[in-house]
TrEMBL record:
SUPFAM superfamilies: CBS-domain pair. It holds the Pfam family CBS. InterPro entries: CBS_dom, CBS_dom_sf, Diverse_CBS-Domain. Keywords: CBS domain. The keyword Oxidoreductase does not apply. This is CBS domain-containing protein.
Length: 138
């Protein structure tokens, strides 16, 4: 099965100049744990709820600061031609819970471990194995 069959295609994004508070509010509003950060339609980073807490709050960065101060600029991405198994393997290898799907540098979808677990019964074992590999202490 191809990843395009289970990915979320209605992806909300924020801009690098969006504030930590704006991004956190958007995460709450749409009930997600990460937001791709895009500039002129191009993916420039990603921010997770954990980033906001660990890189933002814990470091006493003001909530009015631009999200560009804490985003992860090196983003692992996938393409629509990945299989579910390949996507799960990438997520496990890089210890990530969300994989933006891109065409060129434009985000066209995102896949989470939850997508692997609930969207396709045959993908459940990929999600389970990926969670185990992500959670392993090195």
């Amino acid at each position: 099965m191809k990843i395009k069959e289970i990915m979320t295609t209605d992806v909300e994004t924020c801009m690098p100049e969006s504030t930590l508070q704006e991004v956190a509010l958007k995460m709450r509003e749409i009930n997600v744990g990460s937001i791709p950060i895009c500039e002129d339609g191009r993916l420039v980073g990603i921010v997770t709820d954990r980033d906001i807490v660990v890189r933002g709050l814990a470091e006493q960065i003001p909530s009015e600061a631009p999200i560009s101060e804490i985003l992860s600029a090196e983003v692992v991405t996938g393409t629509v031609d990945l299989t579910v198994e390949e996507a799960a393997e990438m997520m496990a290898t890089h210890k990530i819970r969300r994989l933006p799907i891109v065409t060129g540098e434009q985000v066209i979808g995102i896949v989470s471990l939850g997508d692997l677990a609930i969207r396709d019964v045959s993908a459940n074992h990929y999600a389970e194995n990926t969670i185990i590999e992500i959670s392993e202490v090195e």
